[in-house]
Sequence to fold (293 residues):
Amino acid sequence: MLTATATAIPATAIPYSLGFAERLAKMAAKPKLDVQVCDHCNLRCAGCLHFAPLAEKRFLDVNEYERDLSRLAAVEGVEGYFGFVTLMGGEPLLHPRLAEIVHVTRKHLPQEIIAVCTNGLLLRRMDDDFWHALTDCDVRLLISPYPLQVDYDELAAFARKKGVRTALSKDITNTADGKEAFLRLALDPQGARDQTQSFLSCPFGGCYLQLARGAIWPCQVSAHHDSFARRFGYDMCDAPDDALPLASISSADDIETFRRRSHPMCRYCDNDALTVVPWERSKLAAIEWLSPR
Fold:
């Protein structure tokens, strides 16, 4: 089994740290809600924040998703609570029932801003049901431009001609437009990091909530790390406090309390060792996700 010391910081890496004032600003804003429509992807990014290169082929079950959204929508005060709801992956355009997922999302979250976030490579293959779902449900399209031989401006123009509000997304690092620069995780599979300090220096926890498996999770690592752990034989154990079961939520205040505290999974993230690296295709090596320390 690989260890957390089996890697070094790439020569081209730029240290990334989240200032306390920036962290406070992120937490003061409305939280975003991410829905992982499928775990796998058609673009193998090194160090993918959602572990897509390591994931098995899995699609979100539409019936289970509607059940979960129905429970969430029934929570007191949840209408308008989320600043943004993102249908993502993996690559969401791979899901054969994506149009249905769009309709289900809008049905239960009528007041939220909703977007499909995609690398855009499959856009020209999407059928009319997909485009009609976006326009009928007022769902936006966010295209993430990667350093590929792709005319992303032309893709965005193509989507706009379909009547869909479309934008090219920016990377969380703000070091470049699109995905030319990639924020690299720094995982410590031994779970030896200080839970509170890790949470305070995290660019994701409590800000990018995840809806998965009948619960709200504080970040994508807590919700989707299993692909990484299984692939490389790590025992990154979930704890009951890592998730907020939908059945236990009585009001949006419960979600707010949950997202503002650290969680046991935080101890697996060495957030003081985050780096920004140039985008490249994954070699499916653990070092793409591990802390260099």
User: Anything to note?
Assistant: The chain is about 25% helix and 15% strand.
